[in-house]
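1st attempt posting a full record on here, be nice pls
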Amino acid sequence: MTIDVNQLIQDIKQAASGVINQDITVLQGFSERQVKALAKQSELIAKGIITGDIDEDLREFFLNSLEEMARNFAKTLQGLVVVTIEKVWNAVVSVLWGAINTATGLTLKVPGS
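the predicted structure (as tokens):
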């Protein structure tokens, strides 16, 4: 049996897209909540500065906290993207090894499994 390259291309795209679409939904939900929290925190800091409730000493504290929130948000997104890439790799490799196994009649072990 031979490998249908065009079908294999479609299968790879489908496997990768399935993972990406699922993870994008998770990323979007997380991102939306975090972005709203960052925006709200910024608003509260600005209002506090305007009203005088946040003086110069407190301003640095709140701005440093906001900076840390933004940094943690970016680091979390980075981690989620790395996990998504790993999932895409696993899906693509599974499709490729499956095609080779089907074409050859072998049962090759999928890398990473």
